[in-house]
Amino acid sequence: MTSAKVTDENATGAPEEGYERGLGSRQVQMIAIGGAIGVGLFMGAGANIAKAGPSIILMYALAGVVIFFIMRALGELLLYRPVSGSFAEYAREFLGPFFGFVTGWTYWLMWVVTGMAELTAAAIYIHFWFPEIPQWVSALVFLVVLFGVNLISVKIFGEVEFWFSMIKVTAIIGMIVIGLGVLTLGFSDAGDTATVSNLWSHDGFFPNGIGSSLMTLQGVMFAYLAVELVGVTAGESENPEKTLPKAINTLPWRIIVFYVGALLVILSVVKWTEFSAGESPFVHAFGKIGIPLAAGIVNFVVLTAALSSCNSGMYSTGRMLRDLAANSEAPQAFGKLNSRKTPAVGITVSVALMGIGVVLNYVVPEKAFLYVTSVATAAGIWTWMMILVSHIRYRAAVDAGRLRASSFPAPGGALFSWVALIFLIGVTFMIAYDKDARVCLYVAAGWAVALGLGWAFLKRRNPQIAARGGDEPELEKVG
How far is CA 415 from CA 68, 315, 411, 421, in A? Predict the structure, then answer.
C-alpha cells in the first residue's frame, strides 16, 4: 500500500509532509513524559482506588507492562517509516486501506472525546477555587484558549506542552518526596496514621476481591491514553531517529515513578477507604496532610494535566484528519496547511466537536466524565490493537525478506505483541461486563455503522480507493 505523495525527504530518509519540523528533542521527551501523566491518574484513580483498594497499584503496573509492549511495537514501526499519520498509515500498509480508514477516524474520535473528558476535569478542578462558576463556562474558556495555541504554530504547541509536562513531573516528584517524609518522619496531621501497613491492614491488599480489581483495568487503561502520541509527532520531530527511541525507552521508569511510586506513597499516607470517585486522590491526600496551600497547589497541577491532554488532543486530531485527507478518506479541505504549517481546518472542526463536551457539562455535569472516558478507552484500545496487529504483520514481512528491518526492533519480536493483543481483548470483555462502562460499546456499534457507511460511500465515489488506499493527492499548502 502507498501513502500520500510527498515532496522531499529529510536527512534521515523520512518523508517530508509539508509540516514544520519544529519539535526539538526536549519537547518530544516532555510530550512523551506528559502523555504518561494525565487526568486518568490524577482524577480517574480515585474511582479505581475505591473499587480495588491498594491492589490498584498492581493493576497500574500490569497495564504499564502491556503499554510498554505496545510502545516498543510502535517504535519499531516508527523507525521503519516515521510519518505523522503513523497508526493509520501502518494499518493501511499492513492490513489494507479499510483498516487505515477505520483507525484514522477512530483515533480522531478518541482525541475528540478525550478532549471532552479533559475539559470536564478542568472545569471540576476550577470548582475547587470558584464553586460558583458553572462547569460549562470554565470548559468553554479553556476550549477557546487552547484552540488559539494550536493554530499559531507547532513550536508554540511544543513549548506549551513542554511546560505543562514540566509542572506535572516536578509536582509528582515533590508529592512523592513529601509523602515519604510523612511516612519516615511522621510530621503533619497525617503523620500519626501514615504507615506502609495501610496497604494491607484494611481488609487486605485485595479488599473487594481479585475480580473487582481486574474490573478496574478498563479505567486504568484510560490513564495511559496518549502515550502513543509520540508517534504522531514523528512527522514534526527534528531528529526522529534519535528522539523517538529515547522517548519510548524511558517509558518503564516513568510508569514506575509516576504511577506505581506515586500510588504506593499516597495509599501508605492515607488509607484507601478515604478515597472516592469524583475527587482527585492527590488533592485529598495533601488536604489530609494539612500542609498550607498544598491542596490548592496540587489542584493547580492536576488542572494543568487536564489542559495538557486537551492541548495534545487538538494537536493530534488535526494531523490525523490531514492524513485521512491525503488518502482521499476525508474531505480535501482537511489536507490544507495554513501559512504557519498547521492543519487549521482539521483542528477547527475537531475543536467545534469537542464543544459537545461543554454541552455535556451543562446537561449532565455529574456523569459527563464517565461517559466520555469510557468511549475514549474503547477507541484507544482499537488504536493499540491496530498498532500490535500491524507490528505482527510487519515482523512477518521482515522475516520473509520483503521489507527492510527497523533500526529499533522490539524485544521478543512479535511475541510480546501477541501477549499485549490478548490482554486488550480481555479488557474489552471486561468493559462489556461493566454496566457503567458498557455505554461505550453502544457508541462503538453506532460508530462502526457510520464508518461502514462512510467506506461504502468512498468506494462508490472512487472504486480505486479499496485497492490503492486513495488517489494520493498532493498535500496543499495554503495561506
Answer: 13, 32, 9, 10
- Please, are residues 347 and 359 in contact by the beta-carbon 8 Å criterion? no
Q: What is the mean pLDDT of residues 439-465?
A: 87
CA-to-CA distance for 427 and 306, rounded, in angstroms? 24
Most confident of the following: 24-33, 259-268, 302-311: 259-268
Give the closest residue to 399 by CA, choosing from 76, 33, 182, 127.
Answer: 76
> Would you say 248 and 32 are in contact if contact means Cβ atoms under 8 Å apart?
yes
pLDDT, position 367: 62
CA gap 415, 421 in Å, rounded? 10
- Cell numbers at 306, concatenated: 487536564
Q: What is the mean pLDDT of the chain?
A: 81
Convert the pLDDT of each residue in 198-219 to its tens digit.
Answer: 999 989 999 999 999 998 888 8
Whether residue 73 contacts residue 413, with contact meaning beta carbons closer than 8 Å, is answered with: no
Distance, in Å, from the CA atom of 214 to the CA atom of 426, rounded to the nearest integer, reads 10
**pTM of the entire structure?**
0.84
The answer to which of 36-50, 129-143, 339-353, 406-420 has the lowest mean pLDDT is: 36-50
Q: Highest-confidence range of 162-171, 186-195, 266-275, by mean pLDDT? A: 266-275
SS (H, E, C) the chain: CCCCCCCEECCCCCEECCCCCCECHHHHHHHHHHHCCCHHHHCHHHHHHHHHHHHHHHHHHHHHHHHHHHHHHHHHHHHHCCCCCHHHHHHHHHHCHHHHHHHHHHHHHHHHHHHHHHHHHHHHHHHHHCCCCCHHHHHHHHHHHHHHHHHHCHHHHHHHHHHHHHHHHHHHHHHHHHHHHHHHHCCCCCCCCCCHHHHCCCCCCCCCCHHHHHCCHHHHHHHCCCCCHHHHHHHHECCHHHHHHHHHHCHHHHHHHHHHHHHHHHHHHCCHHHCCCCCCHHHHHHHHHCCCCHHHHHHHHHHHHHHHHHHHHHHHHHHHHHHHHHCCCCCHHHHCECCCCCCHHHHHHHHHHHHHHHHHHHHCCCCHHHHHHHHHHHHHHHHHHHHHHHHHHHHHHHHCCCCCCCCCCCCCCCHHHHHHHHHHHHHHHHHHHCCCCCHHHHHHHHHHHHHHHHHHHHHHHCCCHHHHCCCCCCCCECC
206 backbone φψ class: left, alpha, beta (φ>0; ψ -120 to 50)? beta
User: What's the whole-number mean pLDDT along residues 292-319?
Assistant: 80
How far apart are the C-alpha atoms of 213 and 175, rounded to whole Å? 25
Share of the chain above pLDDT 90, in %: 26
